[in-house]
Amino acid sequence: MTGIIVDAAPGARRLAALGVDRWPLWETGVAEFPWTYAETETSYILEGRVVVTPQGGEPVALAAGQLATFPAGLACTWKVIEPLRKRYRFG
């Protein structure tokens, strides 16, 4: 159990209800780095691909068009495979 919740195909109605288009934008190139979530984050992948590997857990692959929620306290490694653009919110 990774604790990462993935919605592989959120509909336009759900994205609009969440207000995704108003969330901050974050971008990065190909990279690999450790990350720990201080609070819950929900992210919508606009472009690119990433593999998020929780400490002691199985890798979770994410790509454009997917919505993911990362729980507070999750320690993981991000491996960005293709340059990434995402919208995100905390809480």
Automatic annotation (TrEMBL):
Gene3D superfamilies: Jelly Rolls (2.60.120.10). PANTHER family: OS04G0445200 PROTEIN. Residues 16-88 form the (S)-ureidoglycine aminohydrolase cupin domain. InterPro entries: RmlC-like_jellyroll, RmlC_Cupin_sf, UGlyAH_Cupin_dom. This is Cupin domain-containing protein.
